[in-house]
Amino acid sequence: MIERLKVVGPPVGAAALALVLLSGWTAVGGAGRPRPVEAAGDGWVLQPSAGAAPATTAFFTIRNPGDVPDELIGASWEFGGPITLKRHLHQGGAGRWEQVAALPVPARGELALSPEDSDLMMAAPPPLRAGQWVEFTLTFRHSPELRLKAQVRPPGSRP
Questions:
Q1: What is the rounded CA–CA span in Å between residue 109 and residue 67?
Q2: E-strand spans in 51-132?
Q3: Helix or strand or coil: residue 130?
Q4: Residue 83, Cα to own-chain centre: how many angstroms?
Q5: d(C-alpha 70, C-alpha 140), whole Å
Q6: 40-84 pLDDT tens trace
Q7: Contact (Cβ atoms closer than 8 angstroms) between residue 57 and residue 45
Q8: Phi, psi of 72 (to 5 degrees)
Q9: DSSP character for 93?
């Protein structure tokens, strides 16, 4: 009997330990579902210029620590009103923008909204002062909503 335990004991013990570790990994979200996206710091909002078009834009960097790609599919802010997801298209020395239904957040990567690439556009914003903090809620295809803040910055000033 003791000889039999010496033979089967180590493999059975290793299997039991593996089962416990895998169960714990699954319980904390390491397996079976994507890890949620997260903010990589605060965002910023461009302060509308006097006499400019009645719109402004917001910029954030979103990090995806998981192995499953995600997508930013919508946004809202404390002032209400529609927010448009848009992507800038560069064609030689000129450029334009287009509205998109989603912006990709790659697995183990980032979505960096910037004046040169993609942003959130808000039409007819209320008066905004430089230094003011504004609250946003970002909506993703797989991850839970992400609430974050952005600081209003005057034109020519960016983080």
A1: 9
A2: 55-59, 61-64, 70-77, 83-91, 94-99, 103-105, 109-112, 118-123
A3: coil
A4: 16
A5: 7
A6: 999 999 999 876 678 999 999 999 999 999 999 999 999 999 999
A7: yes
A8: -80, 120
A9: T
